[in-house]
Specification:
Number of domains: 2
Number of strands: 16
CATH topology of the largest domain: Quinone Oxidoreductase, Chain A, domain 1
Order of helices and strands: EEEHEEEHEEHHEHEHHEEHEHEHHEHE
CATH superfamily of the largest domain: Medium-chain alcohol dehydrogenases, catalytic domain
Number of helices: 12
Shape: globular
Largest sheet: 7 strands, mixed
Strand content: 25-35%
Bound molecules: zinc ion
Oligomer: single chain
Structural class: alpha/beta
C-alpha cells in the first residue's frame, strides 16, 4: 500500500509498504479521508512530545472497516478501560494512551489497523470529508466540557484558524455565544463565509469584556496574558492549545487568578462520546462546514499542503483516497 512516512523531523516521503496486520482486538480500515491539521505540520517540522518515529501521521480519519459497508471515523486514542481516568469517563487521559498518528501508525496511508472499539459510525447523510473533522471538533467539545459551559454564556476564542472556528461551532451547538479573535485580517477574510453561515462574530482584537470563558486556539502565551483580564470575576480560562516559546508569566500577574477566582482548565484530546456528539453537530451543520474545507488533495500532495498549513495560509485540507 501507499503510505506517507515521517522518518525524522523534516523527512516525510511517500513509500510503498506492507498493509498493516491487525492485532487482537484490532480491525483493518480502508482509509477514505484523512484531514490534516497543524499538529501534523508541527510534527513534520519540529516533532511533538507524543511522537514516536518513524511514523505514518494522520489522526483525523474516516474509513471503511474491512468486511463492512458502513463508514466510521476513528477515535485516535487507545485506553485501558480500567484506570481512574477511564473509569471517570476521561479516557483521553488514560495512562496507557497510545495515539494514532503519534505513537502508532495513522491515516495517511491506504489502510490502518485500529482497535475495533475506536470505531464511531458516520451518519449516512454526512460526506466523509466533513466526517473527518469529527476529531478536532470533539477536542473543542472536550474543552467546553472542561469549563462546564452553560447555555447562554459568552465565550471569547483567541485564534481564528480551523480549530478556533470549530470551537465556535461547538459553542453554538451548546447554545452559547462565541466570539472569535484573529489578528491576521487575511485569515478573518478566509473564514468569512463560514462565519456568515453560522452567525459567528469575530474581529481582529478582543472586544466586549467581560467574558464568562476565554479559550486559546493559538499557541502564544499572549493569549493567556491578554485573555485573563477579559474574563469576568469568577470566570474560566481554558488552555486548549499548548504554548510554544519560553515567555515567562509574571507572578504578580498570576495573582489576578487568585484575587478574582479565575479557574484555569487544561484540555487535551477527546473521548469517543465527544466524537459521537461531534458527528451529530457536523451532520446538523454539514452545509456550513463545507466552507471550512479549503482544499481536497491526494496523498502525494500532503507535504505541500502541510507547508501551507504551517504558514497559516489555508483553512482545512482533507486528503481523499
Ligand atoms: Zn488534529
Ligand atoms: Zn485507562
Amino acid at each position: 500500500m501507499k503510505a506517507l512516512l515521517l522518518r525524522r523531523a523534516g523527512d516525510l516521503r511517500l513509500v510503498e509498504t506492507a498493509v498493516p496486520e491487525p492485532r487482537e482486538g484490532e480491525v483493518l480500515v480502508r482509509v477514505a479521508q484523512c484531514a490534516l491539521c497543524r499538529t501534523d505540520a508541527k510534527m513534520w517540522r519540529r516533532g511533538h512530545r507524543d511522537l514516536r518515529l518513524p511514523r505514518v501521521l494522520g489522526h483525523e480519519v474516516c474509513g471503511i472497516p474491512e468486511g463492512e459497508s458502513g463508514r466510521c471515523v476513528v477515535w485516535p486514542g487507545t485506553a485501558c478501560g480500567q484506570c481512574d481516568a477511564c473509569a471517570s469517563g476521561r479516557e483521553n487521559l488514560c495512562g496507557a494512551m497510545r495515539i494514532m498518528g503519534f505513537h502508532r501508525d495513522g491515516g495517511l496511508a491506504e489502510f490502518a489497523a485500529v482497535p475495533e472499539s475506536s470505531l464511531v459510525p458516520v451518519p449516512a447523510t454526512l460526506d466523509g470529508r466533513i466526517a473527518a473533522l469529527a476529531e478536532p471538533l470533539a477536542c473543542t467539545l472536550n474543552a467546553m466540557d472542561r469549563v462546564a459551559l452553560a447555555p447562554g454564556e459568552r465565550v471569547l476564542i483567541m485564534g481564528g484558524g480551523p480549530v478556533g472556528l470549530l470551537m465556535g461551532l461547538a459553542v453554538l451547538a451548546l447554545e452559547s455565544h462565541p466570539f472569535v479573535v484573529e489578528p491576521d485580517p487575511s485569515k478573518l477574510q478566509k473564514s468569512r463565509m463560514f462565519r456568515d453561515h453560522t452567525g459567528m462574530d469575530a474581529s481582529e482584537s478582543p472586544m466586549g469584556a467581560p467574558w464568562d470563558v476565554v479559550v486559546n486556539a493559538a499557541p502564544q502565551a499572549a493569549t493567556l496574558l491578554e485573555g485573563v483580564p477579559r474574563i469576568r470575576t469568577g470566570g474560566r480560562f481554558c488552555l486548549f492549545s499548548g504554548f510554544t516559546g519560553s515567555e515567562m508569566i509574571p507572578v504578580s500577574w498570576l495573582n489576578e487568578l487568585h484575587y478574582r477566582e479565575i479557574q484555569v482548565s487544561g484540555a487535551y484530546g477527546c473521548t469517543r462520546q465527544q466524537m459521537r456528539r461531534a458527528l451529530s453537530i457536523l451532520d446538523a451543520h454539514r452545509e456550513d462546514v463545507e466552507w471550512l474545507i479549503e482544499d481536497t488533495v491526494t496523498l502525494d500532495k500532503v507535504p505541500d499542503a502541510l507547508s501551507r498549513i504551517w504558514e497559516g495560509r489555508v483553512l482545512k485540507v482533507v486528503v481523499q483516497f
